[in-house]
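User: Nudix hydrolase 8 isoform X2, Prunus mume:
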Amino acid sequence: MEMRLFESKAMSASETVQMGRMYSSRFSGFRHIPAAAKFSPQFCSCRGILLKASYSSHPSSSKNNFPSSNAIGSVGDKLAGETCLFQIIGTNGTGTRPNLFPREITVLDAFDDEYGGVIVDPERLPANPNAFGYILHSSLSHWSMEGKKGIWLKLPVERAELVPVAIKEGFEYHHAERGYVMLTYWIPEGPCMLPANASHQVGIGGFVINENNEVLVVQEKHYAPACAGFWKIPTGFILESEEIFTGAVREVKEETGIDTEFVEVIAFRHAHNVAFEKSDLFFICMLRPLSTEITVDDLEIEAAKWMPLDEFVEQPLIQEDSMFKKIISICIARLGKHYCGLSSHQVVSKFDGRLSSLYYNVVDAQDFNCSSC
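Assistant: Predicted structure for Nudix hydrolase 8 isoform X2:
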């Protein structure tokens, strides 16, 4: 009896179960194959790397057939199809249907990271969740035999139906962004050595003072009751892949319409359990104004103006709060050239070959504008 060419996209529920659950547990091998079943060459056109493997069972054999490392180790060509096709020949001698068993095992498209792990290509995921679960399972077996460690699986938001499939295989949430969720899997025994999700958020405040000794201040539309009527410096959060000094200039421009240039990082605050148990780094930057006309951001800002420095300092919230008071005193000391902040300098490290910003005090008077330091 011959059974040919059924597509994974159009399988019935029972066929899906037989095809997708051929393992008794993770990395434990395949279920026992009926003794009289014989398998002839067949093929799988699932998109990915094809690993060829042959299995047969004979009445004289009393052991289960498990895939050997040689059987799973030979890599074939990549095929572009979206559906898996299996060809099974033979019966188990009783007229009943034999177990469905693919002759070729597919591994998810992925590339190695520099730490002995694997990053799955999110653009080359199987279209069918059942096929994804089956291929993910065989991929984990393959990567385990290759000695891989951490597996990174990035699932775009439009492929959210694959998340529970990965969780069932043992993947864990790592982090999520607007367009994707990242899951991870640690193969070796012992504690997971993959880095945790980002532990900090980074904020900036722009201290902008003009030649008339006036500070650029704003009142936000949304604030805590204790901050009612409080005039504050423009603040915000650093964007992904944004420099601290660039973020400060951008936030001031967005909230007030004032163009500025970065001078120094005056100080920074480190606080914990600020938002969703994350820590917070807040950098106070001194900026030099390049324009004077204020244009308020109607979405976030209620009002903005130039306020005399003395009037700004005398606000009760600043006088009553030790941290605010200290920050302002540092800014005033910098204006009087009695304090030196951190300038930004572009450097390249041989460790990673990347251009980075290094913030430090410059001791060379020709390269620094704080002559009294």
